[in-house]
Design brief:
The chain is α+β, with helices and mostly antiparallel strands. It contains ten helices and 13 strands. The protein has one domain (70-391): 3-Layer(aba) Sandwich (oxygen-dependent coproporphyrinogen oxidase), CATH 3.40.1500.10. The protein is globular and about 60 Å long. InterPro entries: Coprogen_oxidase_aer, Coprogen_oxidase_aer_sf, Coprogen_oxidase_CS.
């Protein structure tokens, strides 16, 4: 699922309430999905059934203003604030450099394998600080839609947003909490039904607080993951993909892969269907119980593993002949992808509820999808095998 892209100001009789607007998508919105707080509470208006004052005296809807991002013609050298010291070797600056480099390498690899499509780039900044770069390849020779987004943003979140960002309901933090969020998020939808969709998302989050804001000490954490969503199972492809994820994890801790593989299976679960979105990979969030330098290196290794994990599969499957029935099955599985993102993904939901940049929030959705009433694949068919693996996660390596 993305970091916040705007700030919602609701004037009131006291100081204004500030709500971060996110497309940090889990999995990250990027917009890299990372959190989804409860929707903001707007000012209470007098009863319209028995108004105590004339309607013309009520606060107008325009009193709710959204501080939007501004598109810029050229990307800046950095999205970091000058107060952060620019490229000073801090975790913030090195994570920014990592996601910029990952965006470049992934987009170059995708353009090379597509052969025809080129990425369109939009760069933006926001008044509250930071900005981002959205890149989208659409209607290429291989990819129906491929989005690779980064964002580096600053803002202030209310306590409920902080708790959602941490995914910990009992973590009470009074008062607005300043934050910094950076991440890369990508979803790749190939045209060929035998070529799998891929999602990856890596993010870094910090909170800080002024000395006069009690209960909100500086904290940080990493999150993200890479997962595979095919319409058809080629076991050698799935094993290759998972082996690359395991290799990246094993460089840092042998417990990472089994732990994060299960986390991925559990997170990308479509509860109302009783099935997973795809065949998994790795996923982690709120990770701060290891050395910060180690986790920065781990996130970098994971981001760098995307190309070797995915491109060989695409090269192998992009030209496989297919028929209309197989394409229709791919569209049905795309429907499941849409359902998860719009119903369960924290970053997507947060962005939609709070007015983030819609093009960045929904860049993960495919150009086309399909829903059929009560569709059930024939038992034993290739389609049934995929569905069975989504219902009953397997150990691939």
């Amino acid at each position: 699922m993305p970091p916040p892209t705007a700030t919602l100001s609701v004037p009131s009789s006291s100081s204004p309430s500030l709500f971060p607007l996110s497309s940090f998508s889990s999995s990250n919105n990027p917009h890299v999905s990372s959190f989804c707080p409860a929707p903001p509470t707007l000012p209470k208006f007098p009863s319209l059934s028995k108004p105590k004052t004339p309607l013309r005296n009520l606060p107008p809807l325009s009193a709710v203003s959204i501080e939007k991002e501004t598109l810029i013609s050229e990307r800046p050298h950095t999205f970091l604030r000058e107060a952060d010291g620019g490229d000073d070797g801090s975790v913030r600056s090195r994570f920014q450099r990592m996601i910029l480099e990952a965006q470049e390498s992934v987009c170059a690899a995708l353009e090379a394998v597509d052969g025809a499509g080129k990425f369109k780039e939009d760069a933006w900044t926001r008044p509250g600080g930071g900005g981002g770069i959205s890149r989208v390849l659409q209607d290429g020779a291989v990819f129906e839609k491929a989005g690779v987004n980064i964002s580096v943003v600053y803002g202030v979140m209310p306590p409920e947003a902080y708790r959602a960002a941490k995914a910990a309901a009992d973590d009470q933090k009074p008062g607005p909490v300043p934050f910094f969020a950076a991440g890369i998020s990508s979803v790749l939808h190939p045209k060929n039904p035998f070529a799998p969709t891929l999602h990856f998302n890596y993010r870094y989050f910090e909170t800080d607080a002024p000395k006069d804001t009690p209960g909100a000490p500086r904290q940080w954490w990493f999150g993200g993951g890479t997962d595979l969503t095919p319409a058809y199972i080629f076991e050698e492809d799935v094993k290759h993909f998972h082996s690359i994820q395991k290799k990246a994890c094993d460089k840092f801790d042998p417990s990472f892969y089994p732990r994060f593989k299960k986390w991925c299976d559990d997170y990308f679960y479509i509860k109302h269907r009783g099935e997973r979105r795809g065949l998994g990979g790795i996923f982690f969030d709120d990770l701060n119980d290891y050395d910060q330098e180690m986790l920065l290196s781990f996130a970098t290794e994971c981001a760098n593993s995307v190309v070797p994990a995915y491109i060989p599969i695409i090269e192998k499957r992009k030209d496989t002949p297919f028929n209309e029935s197989q394409k229709a099955w791919q569209q049905l599985r795309r429907g499941r992808y849409v359902e998860f993102n719009l119903v369960y993904d924290r970053g997507t939901t947060f962005g939609l509820k709070t007015g983030g940049r819609i093009e960045s929030i929904l860049v993960s959705l495919p150009l086309s999808a399909r829903w059929e009433y009560d569709h059930k694949p024939e038992e034993g068919s290739e389609e049934w095998k995929l569905l069975d693996a989504c219902i009953n996660p397997k150990e691939w390596i």
